[in-house]
Design goal:
The chain is α/β, with parallel strands linked by helices. Helix content is about 50%, strand content about 10%. The chain has nine helices and five strands; from the N terminus they run ααβαββαβαβαααα. A five-stranded parallel beta sheet has the order 2-3-4-1-5, sandwiched between helices. β3, α4 and β4 form a beta-alpha-beta unit. α2 runs parallel beside α3 and α6 runs parallel beside α8. The longest helix is centred in the C-terminal third of the chain and has 18 residues. The relative contact order is 0.16. The model has no long low-confidence stretch (mean pLDDT about 85).
Length: about 230
C-alpha cells in the first residue's frame, strides 16, 4: 500500500452521531442534547466544555444530524467558520457553535445577538468551549449568557471504558482485537478516544489491504508507514 493510498483511508470516516458516541459519564448531557434537537425543547441555552478529545465537536455534529432527521432548522458553525458571513441569511431555530474560545470579538457579538433572537422565538443555542464559563476570555455580555443556561462538562472516558469502546468498534467493523494489540496501541499513541478509533480504522483498512490478521507486528508496520505520510 502506498503512502498516498494510506492517507486517503483516513479521509473515510463515519459521520458523527449519538449512536457512535461512547457516553460514559455523560448520560444526562447526551439526553439534554437530544432533547434540544426536537421541537419541544424549553431550556434555550446549553454550554458544554471539556478537554481536547472528549467529543465536544462530535456531539455538536451528532446534534446537527439528529435535528435534520427531526426536521428542525439548524445551523452548525464548525471550527474556523465565520459567523458574520451567515448571520442575516439563517433563520434556524437551533444554532450550534464550536470553539467559542477561539472566536473573534465580532463573531462573539453575533453569537450574543443571535442568542437574544433565538430566545425571543423559543429557539435553542448550544455552544462548546475548552473551559468553564468563569475561565473563558470572551466578551462580558456573552459570558453572562453562557452562565445563564445549562452548563455541562464533557467527562473523559476511563481507560476501561476506552478499552470497551475499542473492542466494540472492532467487532462492529468485523475484526478481532486482542488484548496485546490494545495494550500496544495504548502505550504508543494518544489516549483520547477519537484518536484511538481513527487508529483502529486505519489498522483495519491496512489489515484488509494486506490480507493479514490484526496483530502487534502488523500494527507496528502500520505505525511506521503512517508516520511517513
Amino acid at each position: 500500500m502506498s503512502t498516498r493510498q494510506l492517507s486517503l483511508l483516513f479521509d473515510i470516516k463515519p459521520a458523527p452521531s449519538f449512536d457512535n458516541f461512547v457516553t460514559g459519564k455523560n448520560m444526562e448531557l447526551v439526553d439534554k442534547l437530544k432533547s434540544a434537537c426536537s421541537r419541544v425543547f424549553d431550556e434555550g441555552f446549553i454550554y458544554i466544555w471539556g478537554n481536547k478529545g472528549t467529543g465536544k465537536s462530535h456531539l455538536l455534529a451528532a446534534m446537527r444530524k439528529l435535528s435534520d432527521e427531526n426536521g428542525v432548522s439548524t445551523f452548525f458553525f464548525r471550527k474556523n467558520q465565520k459567523i458574520k458571513k451567515y448571520r442575516r441569511r439563517c433563520g434556524s431555530s437551533l444554532l450550534l457553535v464550536d470553539d467559542v474560545h477561539l472566536r473573534t470579538d465580532n463573531d462573539q457579538y453575533f453569537i450574543f445577538d443571535w442568542y437574544n433572537e433565538l430566545k425571543a422565538n423559543h429557539g435553542a443555542l448550544v455552544v462548546a468551549g475548552d473551559e468553564p464559563p468563569y475561565a473563558l476570555n470572551i466578551r462580558a455580555d456573552l459570558l453572562t449568557r453562557l452562565g445563564w443556561g445549562l452548563v455541562y462538562r464533557v467527562h473523559e472516558l476511563t481507560d476501561s471504558q476506552k478499552l470497551e469502546a475499542m473492542v466494540k468498534y472492532s467487532l462492529e467493523r468485523g475484526f478481532y482485537l486482542s488484548s496485546e494489540v490494545i495494550n500496544y496501541v495504548l502505550r504508543h499513541r494518544a489516549r483520547d478516544l477519537n484518536c484511538l478509533l481513527e487508529i483502529l480504522e486505519g489498522i483495519d483498512y491496512y489489515s484488509i489491504e494486506t490480507r493479514r490478521r490484526v496483530t502487534v507486528p502488523l500494527v507496528k508496520e502500520f505505525f511506521a508507514i503512517s508516520q511517513s505520510i
